[in-house]
Amino acid sequence: MNQAAIRTRNRTARWLTEVFQPPVVVTLQLLISPAVEAGFPGTIGYGALAALFVCVLPLVVLLGLVRLGKVTDHHVSNRKQRAPVLVMALASVAAGLVVLQAAGAPRSVMVMVLAIVGGIVVLAAVSPSGRSAATRRRCRLRQLFPS
Predict the structure, then answer these.
(1) Where does the pLDDT of residue 135 fall: very low under 50, low under 70, confident under 90, or very high at 90 and above?
(2) Is the separation of the CB atoms in 50 and 109 below 8 Å?
(3) Taking the CB of residue 140, how many other CB atoms lie within 10 A of it?
(4) Of 53, 36, 45, 55, residue with least CA distance to 107
(5) Would you list the domain boundaries of the chain?
(6) What is the per-residue pLDDT across 80-134, written as a single tens digit (0 to 9) for each?
(7) What pTM did the predictor assign?
(8) What burial class does residue 100 get, using C-beta atoms within 10 Å of its C-beta: 0-12 exposed, 13-18 middle, 19+ buried?
């Protein structure tokens, strides 16, 4: 494969990574989540309000942390930096839940946001360890059975 083809593949991979990153995908999910409720598309504002607290505000804070040099990049590649970022995101989502409840958001939006809370909790439990369980197993196997 020549250099131009490699550059094109890398550029495409970077573009896809940005387009399908969690804030983008979750925002779209939140915007369409009230579609199953009566009154849609009039209820789409609740999805937008949820997206503000779940995606936009945490991303803005994260980009500020990157700019200040507190976090390596907006993907939070350094696992040791993820816990505080996830706590910040969880706090924003919790505030969003309070606002959505007070605003009388449709059940589908509330359920979607609660599912996101579950995902953040699982991610927070797994991320700080530094290595996945599968990676630790492979390392142990290599120690037991060196090549």
Answers:
(1) low
(2) yes
(3) 10
(4) 36
(5) 3-144
(6) 888 888 889 999 999 999 999 999 999 999 999 999 999 888 887 877 655 555 6
(7) 0.75
(8) buried
